[in-house]
Write a structure and sequence with these properties.
alpha/beta, globular
Length: 320
């Protein structure tokens, strides 16, 4: 398989063949996860530390399950009770952890670029579980796997990403990945929730759902990131749902076989109609959760292979 990365910090650094390799491996882990016995020894003897400086349910539990199914020793660092709360810097925390010789470090942090900074200070493989408004690479990869399995391909699709684009690292990572795989991308949302310089992103921009969803193969809704908003970006949640919340009437403008996605957690009745979110014929939201475990297993497996090869080369006296 072609996967050269030492860390998984973002989609921006990945080539299309690396994305395909990771998704192909993730496909095999989907099959493993549906068996009675779900374990393998790909990470046997290796240590995985999860450091989440922001609250998370899906991503943290998904990485924990993924590591355990691969045979790793998994530790969840209780950041709320750690020395970080006593004033220790991120770099000092990284150096402390590095002295314990972990193999994989999974990090979520509220500041963009913090995970990349940490990766420069440790000898293990680092996976970005979301950094500020920057990137969330494994979310984009699990979205890609979900789309590929449902649509049979990951090229030449019309993908509409709708909602709070400005504050969404999920939107950024999906823009990068779907662009690399030659898809037509549309961003739909109010002007107040569009990032500066959006016209330079190489995608179409709409502030009307009916126009933006016309002929779409994939409709990807985003959560309103209220914790990142420092002003009045929307008049009210009721008005937002009326104009930009996905319901059956708006979805009718997309293709008949269009699939509906959401990275979670959902605000039902704000970003998406609850009945539509639960419609197994259109919604793939639960499939996204399932694909998340498989994608994270594949990412950690591939990074561990590269780490083992690097360590083996050093032991043999080869400069890497």
């Amino acid at each position: 398989m072609t996967f050269r990365a030492r860390h998984l910090l973002g989609i921006e650094q990945l080539a299309p063949d690396e994305i395909r390799s990771l998704l192909d491996l993730a496909d095999t882990y989907v099959d493993l996860n549906r068996r009675t016995i779900k374990r393998t020894d790909a990470l046997a003897g290796m240590t995985q530390i999860n450091m989440f400086f922001e609250a998370s349910t899906r991503t943290q539990s998904s990485f924990e399950i993924a590591g355990k199914r691969l045979g790793a020793d998994v530790m969840n660092m209780a950041v709320a009770h750690s020395s970080v709360k006593k004033g220790e810097t991120l770099i000092d925390t990284a150096l402390t952890l590095n002295a314990m010789h972990p193999d994989l470090l999974v990090v979520r942090h509220p500041n963009s670029g913090a995970v990349a900074l940490l990766a420069q200070k440790v000898n293990c493989a680092v996976l970005n579980a979301g950094d500020g408004k920057h990137e969330h690479p494994t979310q984009a990869l699990l979205d890609a796997l979900t789309i590929r399995r449902r649509k049979g391909r990951l090229q030449r699709l019309v993908v509409a990403i709708c909602g709070d684009i400005a504050h969404s690292r999920v939107a950024r990572s999906n823009l990068l990945l779907l662009g690399k795989m030659e898809n037509r991308i549309r961003l739909i949302g109010p002007p107040t929730l569009m990032p500066a310089g959006v016209a330079e992103f190489g995608c179409e921009v709409y502030d009307d759902m009916a126009e933006g969803l016309k002929g779409a193969d994939v409709v990807m809704m985003l959560r309103l990131q209220k914790e990142r908003m420092d002003g009045g970006f929307i008049p009210s949640e009721r008005e937002y749902y009326h104009r930009y919340g996905l319901d059956a009437e708006k979805l009718a403008h997309a293709k008949e076989d269009a699939i509906v996605m959401h990275p979670g957690p959902m605000n039902r009745g704000v970003e998406i109609d609850g009945t539509l979110a639960d419609d197994i014929n259109r919604s793939v939201i639960q499939e996204q959760v399932e694909m998340g475990v498989a994608v994270r297993m594949a990412a950690m497996d591939l990074l561990a292979r590269n780490l083992k090869a690097e360590r083996g080369a050093r032991a043999a006296g080869v400069v890497v």
